[in-house]
Write a structure and sequence with these properties.
By secondary structure, the chain is mostly helical. It is built from two helices and no strands. Helix 1 runs antiparallel to helix 2. The longest helix has about 35 residues.
Length: about 70
């Protein structure tokens, strides 16, 4: 998976690994961890993807203004 993931996906994956360790420490069951981590992953990917889109739009706008 890591070989084909984009930067946003790699960032979320690293965060999930860390969060999973914390949830294990809190003694949550595997099914509860899966539910929580899935929710977190979806939210993080949405935020990061939207941020990347906004950044791209800002760059295009700045380029248009400099021409």
């Amino acid at each position: 998976m890591r070989d084909h993931a984009n930067i946003e996906q790699l960032l979320v994956l690293a965060n999930l690994e860390s969060m999973n360790a914390e949830l294990i420490h809190m003694q949550l069951t595997q099914s509860e961890r899966l539910i929580r981590l899935n929710t977190i992953a979806i939210r993080q990917l949405e935020i990061l993807t939207q941020s990347a889109i906004n950044l791209g739009n800002t760059k295009l706008h700045l380029q248009d203004g400099n021409e």
